[in-house]
Amino acid sequence: MTAQLLIGIFIPSESLAETLREPLSHSRFVVSWSENSADFLDWAIDNRHQIDCLILQQHSVVYESLIELQQRDILLPTLIVESERRAAELDQAYHEAVIKLAADELADLEKSIHKAVDRFLKLPAVPGSSQAELSAPDHRLFLLSLQQQRLSEKLKERLGYLGVYYKRNPRNFLRSVSVLERDEFLNKLRQDYRHIILIYFSQDDTLNQKIDDFVNVAFFADISISQIVEIHMELIDEFSKQLQLEGRNEEILLDYRLTLIDLIAHLCEMYRRSIPRE
């Protein structure tokens, strides 16, 4: 089964949104629609490691949302739909790889999405920066590169190259980044693992995707198995203390060893596949 691309859409204009629904209804994308800026921001922040492209309208409300994402160092492939052809500020406000599309060009929407992704994968274009300057650890470039690697590998799978072995950039390994970046990354990883634990025995349809995303992020940052075990034990210890305070039995926590085994198995498979074949 090939990976599907996740597309996030925020189009304040109802008429323009309706125009978009037709081409997207026949596409192979997974689409999430946001009705207002608050919903869009919450969704984009929560799913920043899964989103493959944003489709947005040229609108002041959207501009504010993009500025918020930029300030959080959340950079994603983006397609801006314009109701009319005019000079725009959204493209440069977010990042230099934003693609603009006129409302009368929506028939080629899928092609435009792939163009936006392709241009995003070629970032960064940092004017006036020397190679020496770019070699220094940079928080935004680190996060951008992780996102690009994740998306690049997902596209390879989406196109059917299932046998591809994964190539990683050592500059993105956790041991190569600053203490601040490392702490932020591990905190996000703990939050993601906590969410997986909480839904592991539920009927949540997103569980497998969340596990895959967690493993991909851990793999590209070269997270060791022992670090995953440490995250698991810290979380289980936290749950155990809470159950003790509530006077409840802690034995239920033993079941969550299955979660740890599941994730480790996935991560080990990723590392196995990272060994180049002769």
Structure description:
By secondary structure, this protein is of the alpha/beta class. The protein folds into 2 domains: 116 residues, 3-Layer(aba) Sandwich (Rossmann fold), CATH 3.40.50.2300; 99 residues, Methyltransferase, Methionine Synthase (B12-binding Domains), Chain A, domain 1 (Orthogonal Bundle), CATH 1.10.1240. Helix content is 54%, strand content 9%. It contains 11 helices and 5 strands; from the N terminus they run E-H-E-H-E-H-E-H-E-H-H-H-H-H-H-H. The chain has a 5-stranded parallel beta sheet with strand order 2-1-3-4-5, sandwiched between helices. Strand 1, helix 1 and strand 2 form a beta-alpha-beta unit. Helix 2 runs parallel beside helix 3, helix 8 runs antiparallel to helix 9 and helix 9 crosses helix 11. It starts with 5 loop residues before the first strand and ends in a 5-residue tail after the last helix.
What would a concise description of this structure say?
54% of the residues lie in helices and 9% in strands.
Quickly count the domains. 2
Structural class: alpha/beta
Strand composition percent:
5-15%
Cα gyration radius (Å): 20 Å
- Order of helices and strands, N to C? EHEHEHEHEHHHHHHH
> Which range best describes the helical content: under 10%, 10-25%, 25-40%, 40-55%, 55-70% or over 70%?
40-55%
How many extended strands?
5
Mean pLDDT: 79
End-to-end Cα distance, whole Å, is 25 Å
Question: If strands are numbered along the chain, what order do they take across the biggest sheet?
Answer: 2-1-3-4-5
* Model regions low in confidence, pLDDT < 50 over at least 5 residues: 125-137, 159-166
Overall body shape: globular
Biggest beta sheet summary: 5 strands, parallel
InterPro entries: CheY-like_superfamily (IPR011006), Circadian_clock_KaiA (IPR011648), Circadian_clock_KaiA_N (IPR020844), Circadian_clock_protein_KaiA_C (IPR020856), KaiA/RbsU_helical_domain_sf (IPR017944)
Keywords: Biological rhythms
Organism: Vasconcelosia minhoensis LEGE 07310
Domain KaiA N-terminal: 1-159
